[in-house]
Write a structure and sequence with these properties.
This protein is an alpha/beta fold and 451 residues long. It contains 14 helices and 15 strands. Helix content is 35%, strand content 14%. Bound molecules: pyridoxal-5'-phosphate. This is Orn/Lys/Arg decarboxylases family 1 pyridoxal-P attachment site domain-containing protein.
Length: 451
């Protein structure tokens, strides 16, 4: 095993030191279910290193991760890709900057915009029908947006997105760099890419990328990594990570990052998971009424299955899978359900999913395909994100929201956690209809700005 942090902390835990420091469990077996984890759960003391100063075995583990992702540098994060997105925007754009956002960005981007007082502009991905999901961004749209506003310093795009769609990062990076803007990639869902033969965003030309190791690797919840191409000062990145992160980063999470990366390098099990997803997509397309998302620009381990063309919604399919078959999906929406697949599903999880979908396919009725989703009317900014999100607000039921009111908090169906409206945007009658029709099961209230 090539796990410098795990080895260092395991050796320290075996020294039987009297630990008069945090955490309060002192590495002892006081919570039986956590048995082997507690001895490794240290704090910044002798020989354990310090995340924010980049020393010791933590740094060695970060260097191993950087090597694996073919990135000049890597910083561990214990606040998820949320912390990664905040840190990237702080380091690459800075307070008061103009930033171009993929409209399909996670809500943490809107939170960063408020904290850093960023002025957002947006590019909208094309919709993939009949799935009704966000697809590819057009590099020409990014080019146009950057030409219109030469003061934009950074562009943030999501790739892969929740449904597994990968953006053309080399083309987008070329456009950004031609305009002198940095490209930041939210690759929260793509930490496993090198294990399935795909490049990391840094290899494809991005300046920074954040990966949620807890989403698709074996790492503990919240553990993530920030990859850097070296075009942004490493000290500024650490400063940002500590600004938006806890002052007591979890060593258990950091060890899990070290172990999860090493597990990716041990064998070809992620490749096997990708092959199993490929086989399941073919099976569903041929033998069921459900419609798997397929294509070359997808995460090979993500399974998106649409109910479009049947009399069921994606939410209904996901709920039935759970209630009748004990199969829990990652998320669902009106037309789709999404499963995250890793080698840990290669036991019988995937067989259970396939059998359940085969059974349910016999129960659903085929219908005409739904009409393409009406595009969301492009929102008009009325206030800065900062003033709207950090200012006074009152929460109203959708039926009481009047056109002309200003959105105060991101209006975000969760998952996928992508805001339909950003703070500071004016709410129109079309938005209210859109939310009522498309987000009926997740959003019934909106926070509106109160001057
Ligand atoms: C696309 C995307 N980016 C960022 C995040 C935030 O990641 P984390 O939960 O690791 O903070 C999420 C969370 O679901 C996400 O889906």
């Amino acid at each position: 095993m090539n796990t410098p942090l795990y080895h260092a902390l395991r050796a320290l835990s075996q020294k039987h030191t009297a630990r008069f420091h945090m955490p309060g469990h002192k590495g002892k077996d006081v919570l039986p279910d956590f048995g082997p984890i507690l001895p490794l759960d240290f704090t910044e003391v002798y020989e354990t290193g310090n995340l924010y100063t980049g020393e010791g075995p933590i740094r060695q583990a970060e260097e191993q991760a950087a090597r694996f992702y073919h990135a000049p540098d890597c910083h561990f994060l214990t606040g998820g890709s949320t912390q990664g997105i905040h840190t990237m925007l702080y380091a690459a754009a800075g307070a008061g900057a103009d930033v171009l956002f993929d409209r399909n960005c996670h809500k943490s981007a809107a939170h960063a915009a408020a904290m850093l007082d960023l002025s957002p502009a947006f590019v909208f991905p094309k919709t993939i029908e009949p799935f009704g999901i966000p697809g590819l961004l057009c590099p020409d749209d990014i080019d146009r947006a950057l030409s219109q506003n030469p003061s934009i310093r950074a562009v943030l795009v999501t790739s892969p997105n929740y449904y597994g769609v990968r953006q053309d990062i080399p083309a987008i990076a070329a456009v950004c760099h031609a305009h002198g803007a940095k490209l930041l990639v939210d690759a929260a869902h793509g930490a496993h890419f090198p294990a399935v033969g795909l490049p990391s965003p840094i290899q494809e030309g991005a300046d920074l990328a954040t990966l949620s190791a807890h989403k698709t690797l074996y790492a503990l919840g919240q553990s993530a990594m920030l990859l850097s191409s070296g075009t942004i000062d490493s000290d500024r990145l650490r400063e940002g990570a500590s600004l938006f992160g806890t002052s007591s980063p979890s060593y258990a999470m950091m060890v899990s990052l070290d172990l999860a990366r090493d597990a990716l390098e041990q064998d070809d099990s992620y490749q096997k998971a990708a092959e199993a997803v490929h086989a399941l997509r073919l099976h569903l397309a041929e033998h069921t009424k459900f419609r798997p998302l397929t294509g070359n620009d997808l995460d090979p381990c993500r399974l998106t299955v649409s109910t479009a063309g049947t009399d069921w919604t994606g939410d209904q399919l996901a709920d039935t899978l759970y209630e009748r078959f004990g199969v829990a999906c990652e998320m669902s929406d009106a037309r789709n359900m999404v499963c995250i697949v890793t080698p840990a599903d290669l036991d019988d999880n995937l067989d259970r999913l396939r059998e359940a979908l085969d059974t349910l396919s016999r129960e659903v009725q085929q219908t005409a395909l739904p009409a393409p989703l009406p595009p969301l009317p492009v929102p008009r900014p009325a206030l800065s994100v900062r003033r709207a999100l950090l200012g006074n607000a009152s929460t109203l039921f959708l039926d009481d929201v009047q056109p002309g009111m200003v959105c105060a908090r991101p209006v975000t169906p969760y998952p996928p956690g992508v805001p339909v409206l950003w703070p500071g945007e004016e709410i129109t009658a079309e938005h209210i209809v859109f939310l009522r029709n498309q987000c009926y099961n997740t959003i019934d209230r909106i926070s509106v700005y109160q001057p």
